[in-house]
Design a protein that fits this description.
plasmid, 3 helices, alpha/beta, two-stranded antiparallel sheet
Length: about 110
């Protein structure tokens, strides 16, 4: 595990986020009526541009959540804006996974 990955995991845990297995992210999204379109995974090196961690980088895999019933992107203008959407946004800011050397986020 790289130092950048370790530092990001530690920073997220200190901030109150929880690290869960990838299956938990997928199961929680599914329970809310969403799924991740894994054909649109976006692997990159994320960099903090401001704040106390400005300049720090970490390997990131960003997922694309879509509504399970019709495939519309969760954050698309025509997507539903119900209680489950609010729960998905909360999940986005409270948990992450680590898989294949990447922080998995959405």
């Amino acid at each position: 595990m790289s130092n950048a990955l370790k530092a990001e995991i530690e920073s997220r845990v200190r901030s109150g986020m929880i690290c869960v297995p990838m299956e938990v992210l997928e199961d929680n999204a599914h329970a809310l009526g969403y799924r991740f379109d894994r054909e649109l995974d976006c692997k990159s090196i994320a960099r903090y541009m401001a704040g106390e961690r400005a300049g720090a980088t970490y390997p990131a895999n960003n997922l694309y959540p879509v509504q399970a019933d019709n495939g519309v992107g969760a954050f698309h203008i025509d997507a539903r804006r119900d209680a489950n959407y609010e729960k998905l946004k909360s999940m986005r800011n409270s948990m992450f996974a680590v898989s294949q050397g990447f922080i998995v986020e959405f």
